[in-house]
Amino acid sequence: MTVTIYHNPNCGTSRNTLAMIQASGENPTVIEYLQTPPDRATLESLIARMGITPRDLLRRKSTPYDDLGLDDPTMTDAQLIDAMMAHPILINRPIVVTDRGVRLCRPSEQVLDLLDHPPESFTKEDGEVVRR
Question: Domain total for the chain?
Fold first, then answer.
């Protein structure tokens, strides 16, 4: 199985998701998307494959979301993608791509359905235990 994670190492949810992938025995391709953002075609493809809208992928907390007025309902999908291209921190994370699909893994246990051999149980950084 091929596994790719668009990861932010400063994000606990992203770290937990990566650790769950590794606990399943997979060695994922890790893309630190703030350092290496996806190009527009890749971002559009990820959004389409997740079956969500660009607005669904926007991150508000600790981003320029409010300063850019991204809550304006008249903004088009193209304009929202333009904002994510200009400010990758606006892209919510982690996004995981496997042979089973593509998903925004918030909460981190959303990744389990994308793995061939998910761990039976996993303890998150905060001590929460996730059981399959």
Answer: 2
Backbone angles phi, psi at 25, to 5 degrees: 95, 0
Which residues does the annotation mark as catalytic? Answer: 11
Q: Give CA–CA dist 104/56, Å, rounded.
A: 10
Segment 31-49, tens digit of pLDDT: 999 999 999 999 999 999 9
> Helix (H, G, I), strand (E, B), or coil: what is residue 7?
strand
| Calpha distance 132→119 (Å, rounded) | 7
Domain extent, residue 54, equals 42-91
Q: Over 90: is that where the pLDDT of 132 sits? A: no
Mean pLDDT of the chain: 96
Same-domain pairing of 81 and 102: no
